[in-house]
């Protein structure tokens, strides 16, 4: 982003606030499915993401918990770690992994990092989040000092319950994880955005930059994605495209879309026209 564009955007916008932290980028990037660490690093750099998420259960630990090739290979002075509980099928599992994630954050020097992306997925076929398990785990973790970002289906009622118990953001899916189907339930997503006072982060299903832009145009606070970048032919190029798509969508949202009209309207006024 050029300094001129950055200054212009800042005059209309404000940073993304989650819990007690502020972030400039509204694109968050997952770290799974990349070919190697170098590809991961290049994609994160091109995305300009401030927040990256790491699956705690799937991290390859080195000498002690909280250290892995991925963890060691990223610059945590510039990036904020969002540990996630991917692979957990029950609330109890997710709670245990959340504590490991918090320990991981402490070991990389982020002593005030209590963030957790809460995933409870008991369905092995469609990988849809378990609403009851998510609500149960979220309430426990909020009460124990975590900044909880729950991953849910596009369910406005569940989103409101999670906000009411103290979650710091809501992360509804656009479509199933890794599907690349884009935003399949825009009406429900819009209801969640309209009714929720905490940030709404569209997570899962986005396949290309236009879909990320669309998520931001309808008023989402941010977008989190992984597969769309990691499985692109050139991941670092797609990471840049996603960065620009999120930025474009946010600017369009702030600018305010024109209202829809039933009939065509001329671009030029009819008054004072010259007739031959």
UniProtKB/TrEMBL annotation:
<comment type="similarity">
    <text>Belongs to the ThiG family.</text>
</comment>
<dbReference type="InterPro" id="IPR013785">
    <property type="entry name" value="Aldolase_TIM"/>
</dbReference>
<comment type="function">
    <text>Catalyzes the rearrangement of 1-deoxy-D-xylulose 5-phosphate (DXP) to produce the thiazole phosphate moiety of thiamine. Sulfur is provided by the thiocarboxylate moiety of the carrier protein ThiS. In vitro, sulfur can be provided by H(2)S.</text>
</comment>
<feature type="binding site">
    <location>
        <begin position="204"/>
        <end position="205"/>
    </location>
    <ligand>
        <name>1-deoxy-D-xylulose 5-phosphate</name>
    </ligand>
</feature>
<dbReference type="InterPro" id="IPR008867">
    <property type="entry name" value="ThiG"/>
</dbReference>
<dbReference type="InterPro" id="IPR033983">
    <property type="entry name" value="Thiazole_synthase_ThiG"/>
</dbReference>
<feature type="domain" description="Thiazole synthase ThiG">
    <location>
        <begin position="18"/>
        <end position="269"/>
    </location>
</feature>
<protein>
    <recommendedName>
        <fullName>Thiazole synthase</fullName>
        <ecNumber>2.8.1.10</ecNumber>
    </recommendedName>
</protein>
<feature type="active site" description="Schiff-base intermediate with DXP">
    <location>
        <position position="117"/>
    </location>
</feature>
<dbReference type="GO" id="GO:1990107">
    <property type="term" value="F:thiazole synthase activity"/>
</dbReference>
<dbReference type="Pfam" id="PF05690">
    <property type="entry name" value="ThiG"/>
</dbReference>
<comment type="subunit">
    <text>Homotetramer. Forms heterodimers with either ThiH or ThiS.</text>
</comment>
<feature type="binding site">
    <location>
        <position position="178"/>
    </location>
    <ligand>
        <name>1-deoxy-D-xylulose 5-phosphate</name>
    </ligand>
</feature>
<comment type="pathway">
    <text>Cofactor biosynthesis; thiamine diphosphate biosynthesis.</text>
</comment>
<keyword id="KW-0808">Transferase</keyword>
<keyword id="KW-0784">Thiamine biosynthesis</keyword>
<keyword id="KW-0934">Plastid</keyword>
<feature type="binding site">
    <location>
        <begin position="226"/>
        <end position="227"/>
    </location>
    <ligand>
        <name>1-deoxy-D-xylulose 5-phosphate</name>
    </ligand>
</feature>
<keyword id="KW-0963">Cytoplasm</keyword>
<dbReference type="GO" id="GO:0005737">
    <property type="term" value="C:cytoplasm"/>
</dbReference>
<dbReference type="GO" id="GO:0009229">
    <property type="term" value="P:thiamine diphosphate biosynthetic process"/>
</dbReference>
<keyword id="KW-0704">Schiff base</keyword>
């Amino acid at each position: 982003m050029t300094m001129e564009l950055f200054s212009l955007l800042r005059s209309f916008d404000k940073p993304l606030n989650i819990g007690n932290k502020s972030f400039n980028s509204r694109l968050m990037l997952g770290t799974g499915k990349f070919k190697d660490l170098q590809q991961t690093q290049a994609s994160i750099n091109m995305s300009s993401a401030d927040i990256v998420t790491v699956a705690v259960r799937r991290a390859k630990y080195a000498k002690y918990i909280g250290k892995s090739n991925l963890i060691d290979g990223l610059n945590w002075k510039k990036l904020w770690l969002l540990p996630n509980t991917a692979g957990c099928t029950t609330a109890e599992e997710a709670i245990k992994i959340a504590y490991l994630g918090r320990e991981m954050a402490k070991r990389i020097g982020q002593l005030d990092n209590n963030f957790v992306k809460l995933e409870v997925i008991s369905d092995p076929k469609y990988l849809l989040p378990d609403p009851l398990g998510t609500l149960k785990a979220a309430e426990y973790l909020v009460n124990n000092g975590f900044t909880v970002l729950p991953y849910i289906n596009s369910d406005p009622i569940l989103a409101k319950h999670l906000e009411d118990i103290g979650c710091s953001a809501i992360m509804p899916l656009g479509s199933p994880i890794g599907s690349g189907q884009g935003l399949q339930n825009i009406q429900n997503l819009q209801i969640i955005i309209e009714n929720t006072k905490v940030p709404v982060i569209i997570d899962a299903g986005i396949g290309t930059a236009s879909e990320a832009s669309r998520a931001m145009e309808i008023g989402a606070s941010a977008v989190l994605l992984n597969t769309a970048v990691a499985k692109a032919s050139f991941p670092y190029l797609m990471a840049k495209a996603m960065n620009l798509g999120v930025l474009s969508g946010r600017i369009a949202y702030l600018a305010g879309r024109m209202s829809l009209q039933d009939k065509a309207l001329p671009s030029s006024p009819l008054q004072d026209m010259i007739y031959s």
